[in-house]
Every structure is written in C-alpha cells, then in structure tokens.
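Consider the following assembly input.
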Amino acid sequence: MHSRRFVCAALVIVALPLALRAQTLQEKIRAHRVAHESELIAEFRDFVAIPNVSSDHENVRRNADYIVGMLKKRGVAAELLTIDRPGANPVVFGEVRVPGATRTVVFYAHYDGQPVNPKQWAEGLAPFQPVFLTDTVEHGGKIVADWQPGQPVNPQWRLSGRGAADDKAGVMMILNAYDALVKTGGVPSVNVKFFFEGEEEIGSTNLGAILAAHKAKAAADLWIICDGPRHVSGRKVVSFGVRGDVNLDLTAYAAKRPLHSGNYGNFAPNPALRLASLLASMKGDDGRVLVKNFYDDDVQFSETEKLAVEEASFTDAQLLAELGLKEPEVPGRSLLAGFELPTLNINGITSANTGKLAANIIPSTAKATLDLRLVLGNDWQRQTGRVLEHIKAQGWHVIDHEPTDAERAQFAKLIRVEVGQGYNAQRTPMSLPLAQAVVAAVQSTTSEPVVKLPTVGGSLPLIIIEQVLGTRVLTVPSVNYDNNQHAENENVKVQYLWDGIETFAALMTMK
Amino acid sequence: MHSRRFVCAALVIVALPLALRAQTLQEKIRAHRVAHESELIAEFRDFVAIPNVSSDHENVRRNADYIVGMLKKRGVAAELLTIDRPGANPVVFGEVRVPGATRTVVFYAHYDGQPVNPKQWAEGLAPFQPVFLTDTVEHGGKIVADWQPGQPVNPQWRLSGRGAADDKAGVMMILNAYDALVKTGGVPSVNVKFFFEGEEEIGSTNLGAILAAHKAKAAADLWIICDGPRHVSGRKVVSFGVRGDVNLDLTAYAAKRPLHSGNYGNFAPNPALRLASLLASMKGDDGRVLVKNFYDDDVQFSETEKLAVEEASFTDAQLLAELGLKEPEVPGRSLLAGFELPTLNINGITSANTGKLAANIIPSTAKATLDLRLVLGNDWQRQTGRVLEHIKAQGWHVIDHEPTDAERAQFAKLIRVEVGQGYNAQRTPMSLPLAQAVVAAVQSTTSEPVVKLPTVGGSLPLIIIEQVLGTRVLTVPSVNYDNNQHAENENVKVQYLWDGIETFAALMTMK
C-alpha cells in the first residue's frame, strides 16, 4: 500500500511545470469549461429543443426569451430590439461596457432556423428533440441511447437538431466565451455587444429597419459574425466576405386537375416535363449558368484574395470521397475557387408523387425553388430580373398569382414566379488593421494556420450592416463542416462547441 | 278543393300509355333501382370506405370479403381465386349458369385502387371517407353536409373516394344489374360469370397465373370489362382495345447528403438539375418522344378504326376550356387521335422540398416516375429497353440498386432505374359478331349513338386474358370522364352508377 505522503509528492511534481508559468487565457477558459460541461450541455440541449423555424413566430419568441435568460444568468442586462412590423422577430441585445476600452465589437449570431420536414430525418431523430450521435448519420453514426443528462459527453459526438449548428451554436459559443472569461478573472479588451438575430434564415427582412431604429445600440468599430463551418481540414477560419442570396419559387401550370395519364396522355401538356425543360435550359452540363448576362458584373478576386484562396485550398479528393462524388460539377475547379462566382441552384422540385406513392397521372402543377447566390458586384434585383427574362424567352407567360381562367385561355405556358426578399454580397478588404487583429486573436487559440477566406460560399445579410451602420464586418465560422445545416439530420460536433468558446474568448480580449 | 275522384281519374289517364304496352327491360330495371336507391347507396358507401390501395394486402382482403358478401346477398355462390405467391391479392369469382344459354360472358371489374396521398385531397375529403359533393372540386363542388343516410340522393351529385369511380363503380354496376334483372323477373341470356380483380392498379402482376390456375372458371366466349370513363359528351362507349402500360422509377444520385447551397454551390452537382436535363431530353416541346425508335413498331389504325375515331370525335375546345388549357400538347391533334400513339409521361418528380418547405440546399437525390403507355405492336420490354438506352446515351451509368461507394467513385452520373411489371396493348377487331351484339345491347339503353372506340387511352391487362384463355375482350367504360381517377378528389357521378346498372342488365340479356 502506498503511503499518503508519496502520493502528495507525486502530485506536486506533476503540477510543477504549470505552476512555473502563468496559465494562458486558453488554458483558463478550457479548465473552466471542463469543470462546467454538464451545465453547458444541459442548457444547450434545452435551447435546441425550442422549435425555431423563422416563420413560427410564437416559438421564435420562446427562443428569444430563452436567450434573454442566458444573458441574465451571465450578469448581462438583456433586451429585445423590435420594430413595429407584423411578424418581425426580435433581436436579443446585450451590452458590457469595459472601463478603459477604446473599441467596441458586436458579436453576432442568429437563433432562427431553416424549415424542417421531420419525415426526412433519420429514424430516431427529430428536428427539435436533440440527441447525441456517435458520428453523422451519413457516416453510420448511431444514437447514444444510454447517455443520461449529467454524464460525460464524448467530444467526438454530435448533438442533432435544427439550429444545433446553424446557428444556435454561435449563441452558445459567444455567451459561454464571455462567461468563462469573466468567471476566470479575465476582462474583455473591448466593449462587448451581443446581437442575436431571429430572421437570418428568411433573408433578414427586417434587419435594416431594426438597425436603423436602434443605431446607437448597434454602433461598433467592428461586427464579428459567428456562423457557418470551419475549414474541411478542421482549421479555424476568418472570413472577409459572404455571398448575397435570393430565392425564386416557380410553379408551372397545366390542366386544372390531375389527369389519368392514359385517357389524356398525348393530349394534355405535362407541367413536370415543361418545368424540367425550363430548368435544364438555365444551366448547362458544364456547370455554366446559361441565363443571359448572369456573370456580367462579378467583381473578380484581387491578387491578395487569390493567394489567400490558394493557401486555403485543400485536397478536394478527400471531400469528394466523403460526399460520394466522382468529380465536382466543373471538373478541375476547386470548391473555394467556385466562391468567386454567383450560383443558380435548384433547392427542390415537386410535382405529384414518385415511387410507391406515384399514380399514373399527368400532374396539374410542377414546382421548383431556386436559390441564387450573389458575389460582389451582383445586385439581387438585377440578377432575378435576368432569370425572369430567361423564363420569358423560353415562351412562358410569367404571373405572380394563381392563373385566372382568362389567363389559362390566353397562354399555353403559364408560370408563377415569386421572388423572395434578397440581399447583396459583402467583402471586407483583407488589409484592414482591425481584421489583422481578429486573425491574430483566432490564431492564438490554434497551432494550425488560420484559413483566411476572401469570402465564404454561404450568405449573411452583412451588406445591410455595412450600409446602415457604416461598420466593417468579419465572420469567424466555427462549426464542423459536415453539420448538414439547412437539411435533415443537422448536427454540431461537441469538440467544435468547446473550441468555439476558446476562439470567442480570445476575440473578446484581442489586442 | 279538388275532389278525390278527379285526382284518381287524372292518374288513370297518365298511367294509360304505359299500361298499353309491356314495360321494357330498361324501364323495369330503372323502376327497381328507384325503389332501392337508399340500400344501393348505403352498400356502395360502405364499400368505398374500405381502403383498397393494391399494396395494402390486409385491407384489399377486406374488400374481397365485402364483395363475397355482396354476391351472396344476391344469391350467387362466391369464392376467392388465389395462387400461392406471397402478396398476391385474390380474385372474387361468382358464376350463374342459365338453363339453355349457349354463350358464357365474364363480367370483369377491379376493386383495388391507386396509391393515395391524403394531404393532396381537398379540405373535408379523405380517400376512404366517401361524401357527396354537389359537383367536382375543380368545378367548385361543395360537400353536401346536411345529407343523412336514407335521404334521397341527387343524381347530379358525386360520391368522393379512392375507387369510387375506378373501379368499385364497376363492381357496383355489374352486381346491381344482375340483381335488378333477377328481382324483376328477368333471366340472363348468357351464363354469367363475375370476375373482380384485386391487382389491376399494380399491373395485374398475378392475373396470368390466376387465369392459368383456374382456366375452367375463367373460360368464356367473351370477357366484358367495366372500367374507365364514358365519352366526354356523356355518350355511352364500347371500346375494342386498350393500351399497354409499364412504369419506370428513376433516382438520380449526387452527394451522399444534402449540402448547404452556399458552401457547396458551384462545386457539388445538383441531381435535380441533372434529372431535369435527362427528362427534357426525352420529349420535345412538340410533344414528340425523342427516345430512339420509340414509334418504330406502332400498328396504325385501320380505315374502319380511323372512321370510328372520327365519328367519336368531339369538340376538344370544350374539353380544353374545362381543363383550363389554351391548347393541347400537340396543337391540332385531337384527344382520340393521340390514342394511336404510345406515350411517355412523367407521373411525378420529387427532389427535396419547394415553396415554404424549401431549404437552401443541394439535394442528394432526385426522383421521377415515368409511365409508358403502349399501343398495338409495342412490346413493353422492348420499349423500356429503348428508354434505358436513351438514359445511357445521355452519359448516365444505370444501376438497379442504391449505389455503392465504389460506383460513386467510378461514375459521375449515377441513376437507379427500376422497371415495373408491364403488359402490352390489346385490340379486338371491330367486325367481330359478338362485338356487334355488345354494341347493340348498349345501344338499346340510350337514344344517343354509342361511341365505338378502336382503343381507349387507358390500360388494362386484357392482353393477358387473350393470351392465357384465347378469349376476346371488350370494354364498356361507364363512369363520368371527370372522375379524377388515379388522383386526389376521385369521384363518381351518381347518375352514371344508375345508367351503368341499366347498361349491364342489357348486356346480360344480349341477343
């Protein structure tokens, strides 16, 4: 049996190297997190369990109230910023003034989520019943059925749920970074503002108006956005720009009612075929969008930006294998190089049913939703206008409502096009001094070189912030790249939550 | 106040013309029906309320048992004809031998129905909760909410429900024709066999085997099929042929999981776009199928058949207006002329979601179900082979299973094609004497000229009957043309049920 004295001596020896130097900020933050993992997980699971589809205003409001509670628990006075528009979701705002700080930074995340179709989620998963998975569903991940609240969580596990990654993870990382910083005796180097939006997934329709109405509160030297995934390699990222975005809903009409395909085949036009022809006419097999003037006003990457993209490049072969693809849409073009160009994407097509549900009919309508991503130089209204012109040039009569009998009698090819609210792309110059400080702060938390992206592929309404406030914006994407955001089986890897807390604590103390 | 005597005298005068001559068969049948409408409606509503999707074997069996009960109630011994194959639905069979009869006629209908998607049905309607409508949903028909069982039914009303028209109406008409005939003292002129199939809507997969196993029971001089709609004008129809049919399910694959359209746009291929291109390549805007050799082996209509089609032609303008179409798929070609040609129809397309459910993703798969209608001369396996060759010629690698990782790594364009069980077209020569007797019988029940169609547009596996039994087959379609068969809001017009009872009573006493 070992003597008690011997054990104590061993502990002293092991602890010595750490005691000889001051603990780094990262070490303090990490130790605090390790000691509080159960509470952090419990709070985050409860948060993800609140339904947050942007259009579900009642539940969105429950999320806002929950975040207010999170802020208060951390000693931050919180309030809801709203405007007087029907259906506008509130921003959750909080502020910490730091004596002596000369700069103010807004930390942004959004708490609303994309629509969900629960039937498309894997067995045992539901959008708002978060569970732990051993890996992604696509990689054979299984539900950790025997885990109980309070038990340790493997950092390789994923927590499933709509918003788990996009973007409640952002709220979680930012708030816990601040909390860990303060609880371990740290002081932010900047005045910290918390700004959590509730309408990002529907195009931030009211963000401009909210900012304009609350200019003093939103004012800052810099906005830092926490949204989107880290690099495929796992490296941390600072992004200098985002693409813009706009959606179009198309509905092609044929006969007023679904028709027996035998009794009416070769007579009644098929809207699914006609819509397929239209969609096929929009983009070639070579991946090039065929809509006239589609690429006319793109601002190409500068030399500095091109170099950064090259530095950030990685083996697409690994990504392709992971996605189960032989080659990208345009063989030879890398994922990151594609971010320089606008996109035209089909989000979905629906016309009657397929497979076991299919019936031998000629459908009465066929629908598609398009997503246009925009790069610097594009204007969302000009870009959707080009698509509309293309549709008309294919012989369609475009309407914005259900067709009347008179319109049906007059036009053989009738299509309803509904253009959503869009916004343009935003890019911050890579040379900005404040941007260098952000890169340095993120770099202080990782031994791998930080990836600097001129733009990410995704979209955020950052241009609105620039336009209304005249403030620069940078993004620090922090979740795993295989998070299935916007789709079924969305998940966040636990280790990335832990890493994100360290990243944002570093940003709150940046030099 | 009128005297009682005066009223009686008036009745005698009105009744006199009828009393002077014997009541016709049709008058007797009609009078019997009028006296028993409540019972007929009650029984039929109960019948339609039993779910009958072909693949729902348990409920299909409940339908079969219900029909057995209907036969027994009419004094006909009934039995189920089956074969020893898993999932084979039974045929309900009954037989009435008539002393002195020299011919035997099988009266056929099917009691199974197409798949249903209840969400697509109009508000208040459900596939298996039949209700009365004042008109079709598309014509603004409303549910007759205040109707109670036992109350009179307006013959212009529709009864809603899957199978109400296609083809439980056939079972209803045939059994009630026999019942009315016998109950009013009539005797069939032929031995009557009842043959009700339970797998017509899935291609009559087992019909050949069932016929072969029960040849003596199925033997007859003629099969008369009650299925499909009467002429658009409302005229009664005898059809001499049907088209063949086969389905193909296509699934185009891209990345293994749905991807964020911003983070992966311009990199990951979109399966919806690729499937749209493929479908667009199959059929031109001029309505012509572009699959190589698609029209190579059609047997064109003979001169007699062409004349019949011309005689049957009607103003397509009225139909187009009713369907809300400016013009047919091929402007200038009539509905009936199109029956001479095979079809390639898209039953449906599904890839992720559209409209409010849409998310900004690149879908992982896109599916389409195709329906090929075949005419005399076509072979279903040859025709599907042509479509498969076309798909390959567009650069697709065709598989019949979920792709393996090895296949994903080897082929950029992967598509799964599942070919259903098909059957060929059938046409009986218009000159056949037995066919003339059928036309005469139907003509005896209507003052309008009977429409004689060389073929209907729809499909029935009549070729199987011809091949296995060597027996000729004719079809007497009897429901309203706007019945939405195969689709949501299926309905049968009550007057057509009453008319059908008279038609089949005449056929059971044909000369």
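The CA atoms of residues 357 and 499 of chain A lie 45 Å apart. Ask yourself how this observation constrains the way the partners meet.
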